[in-house]
Amino acid sequence: MSKPTTPVPAAAKLRELLAEKDKVVVCPGVYDGFTARIALAAGFDALYMTGAGTTMSMLGQADLGIATLNDMVQNAGMIAGLNRKLPLIADADTGYGGPLMVGRTTAQYMQAGVAAFHLEDQVQTKRCGHLRNKELVDEEVFLSRIKAAVNMRVQTPGDILIIARTDALQSLGFEAALNRLKKAIAIGADIAFLEGIANAEQAKQACQELSPTPVLLNNVAGGLTPKWTVQEAKDLGFKIVIYPGFALGPVYKAVADAAKELKETGDLQVPTSAGPKAIFEICGLKEAIEFDIAAGGNLYVRGV
């Protein structure tokens, strides 16, 4: 009997990617199994689970601090489980409480197979990072969140990369925001995330001052940060680029157009390339059939 092979854990794989000198990790933002499968089929090195997308897809609500730990970890675990070899970076908001709760969040994300997660310095009733008038916790509270995550990682089997995110740029200024990230790195954060970067000068300075710690760029179309290509982000010094709106915008536009067409015409034109079988194949139809047959099943021997 052949021995099972042990795949490289997703967190270790992400560490390898970040260690590559000229590598930029590009993460399309996904929020459910279908959008994750589409991104996986495209061949990306990693995925990003957007908190805004999770809140809207699971709860039908705007991203205003409504999603709970249970909502987020359930979604993250499902997405991470689609391909255990591919790193998933996930939003963890504020950690959902004080140090004990942040520790619980860390352990549950690790057990779910998440490769990295980010913790921020907004108050618990937070809002999307690209909305204005965000409220922050004191620096000590933010750092206690990071420390709680670091301590729980030590106690829990496995690994996870901790991303320190600050939303302090708009209200406290560039130097204060950078100082929060430097202190978070000093106590164990692996990656820095300066939300709402306003220009290339800020981006370049942040990447230089925080080096050798990798810096993450949140590339939100229409948000507070200028639109940069992956190459431009690399030239500025970023090591990770996440695209939270990768699926949200296109899905909204396509479904809204289809709804309008059906409502106004009483008909709907669906391209043959988007028929049921083609969509099921994106979601693992072929692999599922092969697994069933290999186990002795006969339900699919004649195909579907």
Strand % is 5-15%
End-to-end gap = 31 Å
CATH hierarchy, class of the largest domain: Alpha Beta
Query: Judging by the overall fold, what is the CATH architecture of the largest domain?
Result: Alpha-Beta Barrel
Number of domains: 2
Instruction: Provide the helix percentage.
Output: 40-55%
Structural class: alpha/beta
How would you describe the shape? Answer: globular
Widest β-sheet, arrangement of strands: 1-2-3-4-5-6-7-8
Q: What fold name goes in the CATH topology slot of the largest domain? A: TIM Barrel
Major beta sheet, specifics? 8 strands, parallel, barrel
Order of helices and strands: HEHEHHEHEHEHHEHEHEHHH
Could you report the average pLDDT, rounded to the nearest whole number? 91
Low-confidence stretches: none
Radius of gyration: 20 Å
Number of strands: 8
CATH superfamily of the largest domain: Phosphoenolpyruvate-binding domains
Q: Given the structure, what is the number of helices?
A: 13
InterPro entries: ICL/PEPM, Isocitrate_lyase_ph_CS, Pyrv/PenolPyrv_kinase-like_dom, Pyrv_kinase-like_dom_sf
Catalytic activity: (2S,3R)-3-hydroxybutane-1,2,3-tricarboxylate = pyruvate + succinate
Protein name: 2,3-dimethylmalate lyase
GO molecular function, one term: methylisocitrate lyase activity
Kindly describe this structure:
Helix content is 47%, strand content 12%. It has 13 helices and eight strands. The protein has helices at 10-19, 33-42, 51-59, 69-81, 99-112, 139-155, 169-172, 174-186, 200-210, 230-236, 248-265, 276-282, 285-294; strands at 25-30, 47-49, 88-91, 116-119, 161-166, 191-194, 215-218, 240-243. Strands 1-2-3-4-5-6-7-8 form an eight-stranded parallel beta barrel, surrounded by seven helices. α4 (69-81) packs parallel to α5 (99-112), α5 crosses α6 and α8 packs parallel to α9. It catalyses: (2S,3R)-3-hydroxybutane-1,2,3-tricarboxylate = pyruvate + succinate.
